[in-house]
Specification:
Chain A is α/β, with parallel strands linked by helices and 522 residues long. Among the domains of chain B are: 3-77, Ubiquitin-like (UB roll); 308-347, no CATH class.
């Protein structure tokens, strides 16, 4: 069985969705939890169409039923977890009847869902940004983990919590330590022994031990001048971050911005120096996918003009600042540095990556890689810890002036800000403009026709965009993406963040949906 | 599950119950000619080419659908089978134009190979039929209905593999036709990947090439989402002309989506940055790497001297290779001296 929460897999991870569909075609059950009736719902046994941002209330209520009806995996809970009593205490307050209004889900459907979940093993729970892009994103993740531990679905193949990673190498960028608190392989910068290990490997006296700033904090630091120079590698922040006017103000405030990219973007407009980079298929390297699988990327053609591999550019800057680095290819970087320094990737060498790659943890060169984590219910920290949390609403909820909830995401035919797909022949033909997806009942009430240009307005900004009337979205909500600059959802989104992860609440803000005044014809 | 023992072309095979003759033969290194069969699809049984003789049975059986039973004796090659296969291929050619010289698929066409293998000559070209007057086209492919051998791989792939159902079989007066539903199609191209003939051809690029001119097929990983599909880049003269899924690879097992199959050519855009740029008086001017790197290193050193290393921050790229992210965090930690390094995972 699959439970898919906050994941429009058929558009954002199309190939992954084909395997879910195949499993359903072969008899597996699928429960979709999503405010939107997206394509995967056609394959679902149950679709829980919850109100935007009510995930914790719903999942806590499912756990309340599992505990009340004694349907949870007592053996797994007793032997592999801790904190059950606190979980029980907290979720018992979330009766299906109590959350029905919060979630917009019938109490009986919540009970049915809980019973079905308990009737099959294993259940794989997949989630994507519908879970994380909330001010309660971290709590949402803790809650899905609570549910899977309560059901005893952890540490088994085809079970567990499976977050589908967004970009091709977002897993890898994390694994490589492009994070303010960890070195490659998730080794804490606060640990003096680890700092010493890395300092020795990198030929420096010492390394900073204080965790750095997270991206939104750095951006705010550009305004306060706490950050004076900002190096943006392959990110189009001016389109991807919430509240574009705020973001552009931040970028414009910067004293010195270096961009490194394959194209000029809305972000490179703010740069003082731009480096031209080699793109995918113009240099050798590796990506790490959602399964922690390290796979090879190979060169097909040379980069244009003077463009260079990114690692080469960084190496030259280091050299100019007095550091001679030895590794002179991606392979040397991996084999001689990364796999030597990150114990979980120690057994991964280029010579072993010729075919299907390897999934870390892979602690030695004879290890076959690890297909799923927490085998036998053994968690990294020993016992799996329940962390019960309370439901909290989105930071901005609808009111009289902004009566709709705006939620955002991705569409099949484009990728993020279209720097790539917008330049791939044919893609713009398949999707040439953005739409605001609106429930027909709402459109009818405002006299909005399908295809009519309407205005979406939030406290941050407004866009004019074509209305697309569809039952995919719940009444009272509007849904759009950020692929097209003019109608980019991020003119509207709310720059509020989860307090721990600093992930923005892209999935919920309040907007007004307005019919444009008829143009005067005289 | 029990095991069953059989003999195929004189070789003993021991296979799990339920294994088809075709699978068992393949396991024993014996190739049975097939046309509609595809490893990633359930047996279709539309072409009849995979027939074999089973001792005790008067007529040949389809090896793709017939399970091996205990004690079975199978013959995959005989004069009779060869002749029957020839007849099947001739009947296909009665409806398939011999337009190989202008067909994109020539050189990697399964039908072409089978016709060659079976030494078929002297086939009368088919008369034009009205049912072939309605080709369909998508943004990325074009159908040539007259070349369709009705193997139904495309229909099965669209339904069984992709779960889309944009292709179906329409029964018409003069026979079957593949029907296309534009509203359901998501342009994944699974159909074109499994089509054994030139009935579906790509129209992504205006470049034309013969299949044998592709000088390299390079395995790589897709640059779009986090699934990490394995692709085969078909490269001619240093340029990618086509992308297909690697049939037996993890994690995608040959599948791709529209972006993975058709989204590759952004790298050839004229908009690509080709030289370092330095802003001067509000405008960018071209510069050498030498000059640009000097400027960046000098400014970084000044800022570190004045405000400390934590006055510099960086975002790495979740699209680029691991080694690039590694190198960037090393630059910031070891050279600049700050942990102000992040990327878009959180936003």
């Amino acid at each position: 069985m699959f439970m898919v929460i906050g994941s429009n897999m058929t558009e954002a991870h199309p190939v992954a969705s084909t395997f879910v569909k195949n499993a359903v075609q072969n008899g597996a059950e699928l429960i979709v939890v999503d405010p939107r009736k997206h394509k995967l719902c056609d394959f679902a046994t149950l679709h829980l169409r919850l109100k935007i941002g009510s995930d914790i209330a719903l999942l806590n209520a499912i756990m309340q039923v599992l505990i009340t009806e004694d349907l949870y995996d007592r053996r797994f809970v007793d032997s592999c977890t801790m904190g059950f009593d606190e979980l029980k205490q907290k979720v018992m307050a979330y009766s299906p009847e109590r959350v029905a209004d919060i979630c917009g889900i019938d109490p009986e459907l919540i009970r049915t869902t809980a019973r079905r979940l308990a009737s099959v093993k294993p259940v794989m729970l997949c989630y994507t940004l519908g879970v994380t892009e909330h001010t309660c994103g971290v709590n949402n993740v803790l809650t899905v983990a609570n549910l899977q531990m309560l059901l005893g679905n952890m540490g088994v193949e085809c079970g567990g919590v499976n977050p589908l990673r967004g970009q091709n190498n977002v897993q890898g960028a994390c694994d490589m330590g492009a994070l303010p608190n960890v070195f490659p392989g998730y080794q804490a910068v606060t640990n003096p022994e680890l700092r010493e290990k890395f300092a020795k490997a990198w030929g420096v006296k010492d390394l900073p031990g204080k965790p750095g700033l997270m991206l939104p904090q750095m951006m705010e630091g550009l305004v306060t001048k706490k950050i004076r120079a900002f190096y943006i590698f392959g990110e189009n922040l001016a389109n991807t971050e919430p509240d574009i006017r705020k973001v552009e103000h931040e970028l414009a405030s910067a004293e010195f911005i270096v961009c490194q990219d394959i194209f000029q973007t809305e972000t490179t407009r703010f740069a003082h120096v731009i480096f031209p980079a080699a793109a995918w298929s113009e240099n050798d390297g590796t990506f790490s996918n959602s399964e922690r699988r390290v796979s090879r990327v190979r060169t097909a053609s040379p980069p244009p003009g003077l463009a260079k591999p990114n690692w080469w550019i960084f190496k030259q800057i280091a050299k100019r600042m007095g550091h001679e680095w030895l590794s002179d290819s991606a392979r040397e970087l991996w084999d001689n540095e990364i796999s030597v320094l990150a114990p979980s990737m120690k057994g991964i060498k280029y010579s072993r990556l010729e075919n299907n790659g390897l999934q870390w943890p892979c602690p030695n060169e004879d290890h076959p890689g690890t297909c799923f984590l927490h085998q036998g219910g053994e968690f990294t920290c020993g016992l799996g810890r329940f962390r019960a949390v309370e439901w909290t609403p989105p930071a901005e909820v609808p009111d009289r002036d902004y009566p709709f909830v705006l939620s955002t995401g991705r569409r099949l035919y484009h990728y993020h800000t279209r720097t790539q797909t917008g330049r791939a022949v044919g893609m713009n033909q398949l999707l040439g403009e953005e739409t605001a997806d609106l429930a027909p009942v709402d459109a009818a009430a405002m006299g909005i026709a399908n295809g009519e240009i309407i205005r979406l307005r939030s406290r941050r900004g407004e866009v004019k965009v074509k209305a697309r009337l569809t039952d995919e979205v719940l009444p009272g909500t509007v849904w759009t993406a950020f692929h097209f600059r003019d109608a980019c959802a991020n003119w509207l989104t709310n720059a509020v963040f989860d307090p721990i992860s600093q992930t923005a609440e892209y999935k919920a803000c309040a907007v007004a949906v307005e019919k444009l005044q008829e143009q005067a014809t005289g | 599950m029990g095991m069953v023992k059989a003999t195929i072309d004189g070789s003993d095979v021991l296979v799990p119950e339920g294994t088809t003759i075709l699978q068992a033969a393949k396991g024993a290194g014996i190739r049975i000619p097939t046309l509609c069969f595809h490893e990633r699809l359930k047996p279709i049984g539309s072409c009849g080419l995979c027939i074999v003789e089973v001792a005790g049975k008067a007529t040949p059986v389809g090896s793709c659908e017939t399970p091996v039973t205990d004690g079975m004796t199978v013959t995959t090659r005989s004069d009779r089978l060869f002749s029957l296969r020839q007849d099947i291929l001739k009947s296909i050619l009665a409806h398939h134009p011999l337009d190989c010289p202008i067909c994109d698929k020539a050189g990697e066409c399964l039908l072409q190979d089978l016709v060659f293998e079976h030494g078929i000559t002297g086939v009368e070209p088919p008369a034009p039929s009205p049912k072939f007057t309605a080709p369909y086209a998508t943004t990325f492919l074009k159908s040539w209905p007259e070349r369709c051998v009705l193997c139904l791989r495309c229909v099965k792939a669209c339904t069984e593999i992709q779960g889309i159902g944009a292709l179906s079989v329409a029964e018409e007066q003069d026979g079957q036709r593949i029907a296309y539903d534009q509203d359901k199609c998501v342009s994944c191209g699974e159909c074109i990947q499994v089509c054994p003939t030139g009935a579906l051809v790509e129209k992504k690029t205006e470049l034309r090439w013969r299949t044998w001119e592709v000088d390299k097929k390079i395995r790589t990983t897709c640059p779009y989402c986090g699934v990490g599909c394995q692709q085969l880049l078909h490269v001619k003269d240093g340029r990618i002309v086509k992308v297909s899924g690697v049939e037996d690879a993890e994690p995608n097992r040959g599948r791709l989506c529209v972006k993975g199959r058709y989204g590759y050519d952004f790298i050839y855009s004229e908009d690509r940055l080709k030289t370092p740029l330095i802003r001067e008086n509000g405008y960018f001017r071209e510069a050498s790497f030498e000059e640009a790197i000097d400027l960046v290193a000098r400014r970084f050193k000044e800022i570190i001297a004045e405000s400390g290393p934590d006055a510099i921050g960086a975002v790495s790229c979740a699209r680029s290779i691991n080694e690039d992210s590694y190198q960037m965090q090393k630059l910031f930690r070891a050279v600049i001296g700050t942990n102000n390094i992040d990327h878009c995972a959180r936003t």
